Fold:
Amino acid sequence: METFRKLKKFYWPFKVYFIWSIMFLVVVTAITVVYPIVLQITIDEAVLGGRYELIPLLTIGFVGIMIIKGAATYIYQYTGDLFGIHSVYQLRNSLYAKLQYLSFKYYDNAKTGDLMSRLTADVEAFRFFLSFGFSELIRFCLLILISFSVMFYYSITLTIVTLITLPFLAVVVFKFDKEVHPAFRGIRKSFGSLNTKVQENISGINTVKSLSREDFEIKKFNDSNRDYKDKYLFTSEIWAKYFPLMELLGNLSVVLLLGYGGYLVMVEEILPGELVAFYSLLWYIMWPIMNLGFVINQYSQSKASGERLLEILEAEEEIVEKDGAVHVSAFEGNVEFDNVTLRYGVDDKAAIYNLSFTAKPGKIIGLIGSTGSGKTSITQLLTRFYEPNEGEIRIDGQEISNYSIQSLRGNIGIVLQESFLFSSSIKANISYGRPEAEMDDIIDAAKRAQAHDFISALPDGYDTILGERGMGLSGGQKQRIAIARAICVNPSILILDDATSAVDMETEFEIQKALNEVMKGKTTFIIAHRISSLQYADEILVLEDGRIAERGNHKQLVQNAGLYQRIYELQYKDRDKLQRSYTS
Structure:
């Protein structure tokens, strides 16, 4: 029950629904146990006793009891549902909120499909047990307790003989629970993996089709689906092994009841009606114990699901805001890296090592280097997506952890290499970081990003609803909307992570002209592979293996033999030679 104890804060505030549900459950259970008593009175008193005048009274009483039970059942089930639904509403909100605040390091290892499975199937499994599992367990206990009491009232010896198999049945149920819980956890894990495969395939469908890998993806899905099937079959084998044994022990009790109970009727120690009532009461005990497997099934599923949900809720939030963190409306833009080292994992090689540089307010800093040299890591540290292992990062003289996360990131505009657009209107996408922006500001941002013309040409203009991830737009159009989104925030610090990689040279030139206006007065970091994007930077940092290999402006670096000069020659001189060879 440790899992339920840890999740108590989500369901305990709604305990009033649970209490009402249990109160009416007691009424339903008590009325259920009245059935065999009414049957016993009908047989022994009305029929065998010859008091036929009792039959109409018993019939009317029985109908009245049915009406009361129906009303009580309605209230018990409805309040039970309210208990479960309200509880998981809070739980689902907390899970989603937690995912918003977990660091990039968590998502480096997490799989989207698995997370979606946890927030849907696992939450639903937990809700089902809250709504029905708890109450079913209590109902079983009440049925057994009340039935025992009535049975002992009729005959102590018959009760003992009949229930002699009960300890064996309890042992079987216990062993069943011990085996079925790990099996259900395996099912949940396999289901999460299956979801991941589907999500990855749908997200990468263009790549799959362009490389004709449909058959390969089908095989991959079949393998995951087969694993899911095998996990379920393994669980079914456990059920198939234990349930016949439980049913055998239950039916053995019936044989003992009929044999010994029939003898007691013949020697007139009990009445025939009492034996009939005894038979019904026996099943009120055996049925819950035999069906305890179903409740254990629900419990095991909900426990396995709860454990998976707790893995999210208890995940460490590495990026936390200090008490008394400073909130600022804007930065001057003075950025300092002081001997900063970053490792993404404990045993990983440093992504950047002992890095130091200063970016003065309003200056443009270019970052260039081979893949994995640490360019993007610098900007991810600046925005506190990751924390440095060593060293300090300061903005305007303050260590960045002293600022509130909202004000830090709210004053940094980012345009990533891969543009992500939401399934919403173009207007909502541009104003995403500044929801209160006026339409004039949105249009101005789009004009600066060279996006206004193609947006205006769309049938619904800025109200055009985009497909998933901006489907329906070209890569360059999506990139320009992403740039407009960063411009609309009006940040103090601007980060352009290969922001013009998806546009043609002519559009890049137009965007660069617009960005030159936007970058005025803003500290700007430009990550680029094209030297044309960096030649007007105030300082260029050439990175290699997480260190600064060279630094200077474009003119200085081109004149000095080194990595930057080699990149320049590859992009310009070799290109000119190639063009001449084509024309000759």
User: Anything to note?
Assistant: The first strand starts at residue 335 and ends at 342. Residues 330-411+524-584 form a domain with the Rossmann fold fold (CATH 3.40.50.300). The radius of gyration is 36 Å. Residues 177 and 245 are 14 Å apart (CA to CA).
